[in-house]
Amino acid sequence: MALPAGVIAWLDEGIDVCGSEHLLAQLAKRFPRSRFVGHTADGMQFDLVVTTEVPHDRLHALRRALKPSGILLCLATGVQERLAAFAREAGLSFKVLDADVYALHL
Fold first, then answer.
1. Does any domain span residue 74?
2. Which residue blocks in the chain are alpha helix, DSSP H?
3. Lower CB density within 10 Å: C or N end of the chain?
């Protein structure tokens, strides 16, 4: 999985991460200082939320799961327009980091 350099440095320092269990298993091996949770629960917030899916009904929940300085990192194909529209609607910054790698943050 290709990650932006800034995200790699952040993971090396040790942050709270939420995402799909498959992705988290890969990340946990590479970044032992970070803490990984497979699913969001009400009230829990994370520095980084990593997803490979963008179900429209879950985007607001994923945004609420971010700490104020948190990043939603999406690794998915064919979602750029939907993510950009959601970012505008939710008042988030939207960046294309690489082919099929997108970041949203406050």
1. yes
2. 5-13, 21-30, 56-64, 80-90
3. N
Q: Are 65 and 46 in contact (CB under 8 A)?
A: yes
Exposure string for 81-97, b = 16+ CB within 10 A, e = fewer: ebbbebbeeeebebeeb
Q: Residue 99 is part of a domain; what is its CATH number?
A: 3.40.50.150
Query: What's the structural domain count of the chain?
Result: 1
Beta bridge partners of 49: 18, 72
* CA atoms 80, 41, 71, 74: torsion sign: negative
pLDDT at 35 over 90: yes
Which residues lie across from 78 on neighbouring strands?
none
Q: What is the pLDDT of residues 57-82, one digit of tens each?
A: 778 888 888 898 899 888 888 888 98
Give the residues across from 98 on adjacent strands: 101
